[in-house]
Amino acid sequence: MGTYWSQNALTRCPKRLCLLLLLIAGIFPLASHAQNAGINIKLTDKPLSAFIQSIEQQTDFKFFYEQQQVDVKQHVTVNVRNASINAALEQALRNTNIAYSISEKRILLTQKQDNAPSQSGKVILAKGQVTDKNSIPVIGANILVKGSTLGCITDIDGNYSLEVPTGSTLVVSYIGYTTQEVTLKNNKFRQIVLEEDSKMLDDVVVVGYGTVKKRDLTGSVSSVKGDDLNLNGVSSIGHALEGKAAGLYIRQNSAQPGGGLDILVRGAGSVNASNDPLYIVDGFPIAKLDQASGGDAKMDPGTQGILNFLNPNDVESIEVLKDASATSIYGARAANGVVVITSKRGLAMDKAKITLRAQYGFSELAQTNWKMMNTDERIQFEKEVGLDTGKDYNLLSKVNVNWLDEVFNDRAPLQSYELSINRATDRLNYYVSGGFYDQDGIAQNSTFRRYNIRTNADVKAGKWLKVGTNTMAAYEEAQQADDGSYTTVTPISACRFMLPYWNPYAKEGSLASLSAGNWAGTSENPIVYMGLNPIKNKKYKVLSTMYAEIYPIENLTIRTQFGADFTHSTAFLQSFQRLVECIL
Predict the structure, then answer these.
(1) How many Å apart are CA 361 and CA 351, to the nearest integer?
(2) Half-sphere exposure (CA, 13 Å, Cβ side) for 527?
(3) Closest residue by Cα to residue 402 from 377, 436, 434
(4) pLDDT profile of the chain (584 residues), mean per 10
(5) Regarding beta strands 535-550 and 558-573, do their DSSP bridges make them parallel or antiparallel, or are they unpaired?
(6) Beta pairing partners, 153
(7) ∠ CA(318), CA(321), CA(327), 5° rounding?
């Protein structure tokens, strides 16, 4: 099946900014584009840490600083709109004693001081290499002259080169390693060996239910950001993950619209038991009853994908935990790996951002040359093998039907509409979205529709209390074509079993059928059968988590969380015995 699509995304954004972004994307490299990306921040007498958080939420930049030198609690005032990263930093730090430097996606904050002159006033060229204890070069290590703003960053080979005053002391730092101070006594090449900082292993990362120490995640973890996913016309986030995470095997077990997926993390681990990974959405595990079961279990609503209830455009990031450390965190359910999905939050800006996304496309058979006989070829064949007894070929030759065109839809339509609004302030962070997805299958009477809404909100109720929720609701309805049996009434086999001089329509234009007596075939008209024997699935799903964080004293956080996962599925199968008896 080949799929073609077109997309139109409308986001409230000034025209000048849009033109600027397009120009930069076409001319300058990605790093330059990132530094000139539009930033919207409005903070009045707020801590510097709030400004840092806003920058990291809106861009891919990360801040690095030493707490002894940089006071992130001091208050700043910033009011920028569609500004570059440099303009935002200049405005935020203009009345402080803090300087900054940018290298790729890293922003280094240091204490602003005059360059310390040497006792002799002589400047030398300091050159060397920074490695770890295994002599592996440390790329991107920060080299800073102590007591000044002079500095550089090591290259891909860990080398550094910097003109410094004689007798200067270099401060060498890198995340995950202890900071070292090296005094230059001469102009010789100096190799600096960094030691791992065991305290850094106690840093926490978000993995699912909450946070976990990095030391528990020393194994393999793949992370995919929402911007890196291929979201063009897909019904499930599982399709968008294809080819994006190493070690993740994804196979579609049904070509039906909204059909299920087999998702394996590093292959199958069992012959008889389930090989499905554990899915966690916004810190809450998804019940196994939703998992696609594959095969011919038509009455099982699980034949629809487990992740169909999610709007792919609501996803902020996906982490795949692939080794035994996931079991120590989540227990036996994580034996086959863990897929952690985090939904979007609001972005800091002075006004709410409204985004409307519309998509339209179509699907068609990838291979249409099935080399089937037309009426003339069929008549010639029957005469050659002796099947022409009692047949009026003068009448039959007037009908020539291509059953491939009759059974399958030509350019089955697909459409999707989504509306979202988000904003973040000092006290409120919210993301609200709603969407509608509608896809017709290439086989007749196969469809998938989804209606979904989502609300993510965080509210600072006071200095000591923060509350929030991640709540979504979805309704899905799917109608499947009977594709499992090799009979005269299932789509693929019907194309081959039906003869080209059997007209599926009567003279007045209605469908020909056995009951009406105007069907010339030996069994029921497959188009009539598929219409009278629907296989329908409906599912209602509500997934909600609510939390409260209490800060009784400094550096102490008490968090309580409640979650609920409600799913109601129904399946409807209608079968007419007379039609079943006619199957070959």
Answers:
(1) 33
(2) 19
(3) 377
(4) 36 38 38 58 86 86 80 87 87 86 82 52 80 86 81 85 81 83 69 75 48 54 74 76 78 76 78 81 73 40 67 86 74 83 83 90 80 90 88 89 84 92 89 94 87 94 91 91 70 81 88 86 82 84 93 89 89 62 43
(5) antiparallel
(6) 142
(7) 140
